[in-house]
Specification:
Rossmann fold; 4 domains; alpha+beta; 4-stranded antiparallel beta sheet
């Protein structure tokens, strides 16, 4: 059945633009609902029939059983209380556990399976915020991938759950005060995920444990603090910083530049807190850490590969700030942790190799630390300037993540991995190649290749190119046994580190946003052309995949070069960028993609809009397009409109499947089974269309 359509033409950027599938934006229309469901049923039937899909799921389940327990979302208090989610092979979602110290006896605090407020909903723990001494913890639970958290408070020792409930907590970010009995939190103004104003003018409240949230005091918002430059779409937050003893107020968006004010904690006694300015966007501060008297600032200002400055907390002066860690010449400064033993920091080389350094307080020369293995990815954390602990989580394309504590006294790394270790002999013969690919303008973009050593360059290897390219987020090496099943089936997994990401620093991000966004998909196209030229594969054997903002990457690559790809698989993707601002989450994304209100940025949005670049009679690749009906980030109608138009336009005869999951959102908070099924859909569809193992037997 054809999708509901209408003769909608509107003027965008000064030109008439047809939008025939505008009716699909009305998710409450029964005819529209019926089309979504029919498409989902059809896609489900085709996907379930692909030979090899069930084998992939079975292998994922087998992999999962090899690990006795997986531990994630760890939070450690200064007095060594560990709060974390744990998932065993029998668990669909993570359960909240507690232990005192790394070697302490663990205790189950909360099982989200017991939370059954809404019949038929599956809840996940989406917030864990212990107070400073670990005696109480705010827990947030969200249903069906919605990220729409409901907050409650638990007393850790007794397990008592206080009666109050706080809903609309998608950006809650609870921050406890030193009394251990009150906390700040953000609350949206609407429960309706389709309400276009849902995220506008959210507010920060102060809650006292055991009281009715209706009596909570408003602390910070655009209305409450009318003297401050706060935009309606900005997401406010207030944090009590236990290291400096001060209050910090922030307004955020996807813009990485910090906008912040601060005040002494006793200013809470005043009706309106007299916030003092700390950072403006033009200061180019991306992050900071504090001591009692100092600010350490992470910034790309006049240093696109980042540097660290130090200035006074009480009288900050960025112009005369001391450079503590200068911008590296051939790497990007990616992480910073402050301890009583000095500064620890990480340097990334092309986004795929990380090194760890230690600089003593008042030291002149940093020391490179010899890590337990060569890490592709490294994340470092600490308890702050007044504690000695520093932890490093390390991993790579073929090396599972492990967590180490660095003992500065003995100069050694101590393995404190919480998750069980597992063996994957299937991947003992993997080879990893890191190459630099010349793009359309001569700029070289990193490309990671993972495949079996026995592979031959005969031009016939199925290739899955994965990418993202937005917000300055880097795809650093990660070990995923389930994703690596592509190599188990004989294919090449390629990760394109395209512009828009942060692999090569802040300039790499800025070279793939707003008006420079075409570099993002042109880098992907160049990566595919490189693989063909070097004899790895051929166009009829290349599949491309990305999610969310990566929908721009996949959608525009396949519409610009439909001849270069066999299959395109955008998941919950941004595919109708010019309409983004009409969705609840759209305005907050303006700093990354632009606004239709600015003529130049409007044209950039139209250029990155894959829906509007589809043309009738073109032989487009096969496509698997997905959406989540509970998605708070990319509404289901964005991928829906693209799918409907692609079905109408393509002349290739290849399948165009559109699957909407009615019990999922953006993929955040999915159950384990849903994660396996979604990944198996993508892998099996890609193998089917590229002629991979078992992939040439299925028909629609």
């Amino acid at each position: 059945m054809d999708a509901p359509s209408a003769n909608v033409v509107e003027t965008i950027c000064g030109e008439a633009v047809a939008d025939p599938y505008r009716p699909l934006e009305n998710l409450k229309d029964p005819a529209v609902q019926a089309w979504y469901m029919r498409e989902a049923d059809h896609a489900r039937a085709v996907l379930d029939a692909i030979p090899g899909r069930s084998e992939l799921i079975a292998k994922m389940v087998e992999f999962d059983k090899r690990r006795q327990e997986k531990i994630f979302d760890l939070s450690i208090t200064d007095n060594d209380c560990y709060f974390y989610l744990k998932q065993t092979p029998a668990d669909e979602t993570g359960k909240l556990y507690f232990r005192k110290g790394f070697k302490g006896k663990e205790r189950l605090l909360f099982d989200p399976d017991t939370w059954k407020n809404v019949t038929g909903s599956t809840y996940v723990v989406s917030e864990i915020a212990p107070n400073i001494d670990g005696s109480k913890v705010v827990i947030g639970v969200s249903p069906n991938g919605s990220e729409n958290a409901i907050l409650f408070v638990m007393e850790v020792e007794s397990g008592r759950i206080y009666p109050e409930r706080i809903d609309r907590g998608r950006f809650a970010s609870p921050s406890w005060l030193p009394d251990g009995n009150s906390f700040f939190y953000n609350r949206l103004n609407s429960r309706d995920p389709l309400d276009k104003n849902r995220q506008k003018d959210s507010r920060i409240w102060l809650h006292v444990v055991g009281t009715n949230p209706a009596t909570d005091r408003e602390i910070f918002s655009r209305a409450h603090d009318a003297n401050l430059p706060i935009k309606a779409e900005a997401i406010p937050s207030v944090v009590y910083d236990r290291k400096s003893g001060k209050l910090f107020a922030f307004v955020g968006s996807v813009d990485p530049r910090v906008t912040a004010w601060y005040a002494p904690t006793d200013a809470l006694n005043e009706k309106v807190i007299p916030w003092q300015p700390l950072f403006r966007p033009e200061d180019d501060v991306y992050d900071f850490v504090t001591t009692k008297q100092d600010l350490y600032i992470y910034t790309p200002k006049n240093a696109p590969h980042f540097k660290v400055l130090k200035t006074s907390l009480d009288q900050p002066d960025l112009a005369s700030a001391e450079t503590v860690i200068p911008e590296p010449a051939d790497a990007t400064l990616t992480g910073l942790a402050l301890t009583s033993k000095g500064l620890f920091y990480t340097l990334s080389f092309n986004g795929v190799r990380e090194e760890l350094y230690h600089l003593e307080h008042d030291g002149q020369k940093p020391e490179k630390l010899d890590t337990p293995f060569d890490a592709g990815t490294m994340a470092i954390t600490s308890k702050g300037f007044d504690h000695p602990e520093m932890w490093a989580i390390m991993g790579g394309w073929s090396h599972d993540f492990r967590r180490f504590r660095y003992d500065e006294e003995d100069k050694r790394f101590i393995d404190e991995t919480l998750s069980s270790k597992a063996s994957y002999p299937e991947y003992d013969n993997l080879e990893v190649r890191e190459v630099m690919v010349p793009s359309h303008d001569g700029v070289k973009a990193p490309l990671s290749l993972i495949y079996n050593r026995s592979m031959t360059k005969d031009g016939k290897n199925p290739v899955l190119i994965y990418g993202y390219g937005a917000y300055g987020n880097s795809i650093t090496p990660f070990f995923s046994p389930s994703l690596l099943l592509w190599t188990w089936k004989g294919g090449i997994l390629a990760v394109a580190h395209v512009r828009g990401g942060g692999e090569l620093g802040d300039a790499w991000h800025k070279a793939g946003m707003k008006t420079t966004k075409p570099n993002t998909w042109k880098d992907l196209i160049a990566s595919a052309e490189y693989l063909v030229k070097k004899g790895y594969t051929s166009p009829e054997r290349i599949a491309i995949n990305a999610a969310s903002a990566g929908g721009i990457l996949v959608g525009r690559a396949m519409t610009e070069r439909p001849d270069l790809f066999a299959a395109a698989m955008p998941q919950v993707g941004v595919l109708n960028a010019v309409r983004g601002e009409t969705s609840p989450n759209g305005p907050v994304n303006v700093p990354e993609f632009g606004t239709i209100k600015n003529p130049e940025e409007c044209k950039a949005l139209l250029e990155m809009d894959a829906y509007h670049h589809l043309r009738d009679g073109v032989n487009y690749p096969a496509a698997l397009i997905t959406a989540g009906m509970n998605d708070p980030r990319v509404p289901a109608w964005q991928p829906a409109k693209f799918a409907a138009r692609l079905q109408e336009a393509t002349a290739s005869g290849k399948p165009v499947l559109f699957f909407t999951d009615y019990k999922a959102g953006h993929g955040i908070g999915d159950t384990k089974t849903k994660q396996f099924e979604s990944l198996a859909d993508m892998l099996s569809f890609g193998l089917w269309q590229t002629g991979g193992s078992d992939g040439d037997k299925a028909t629609e």
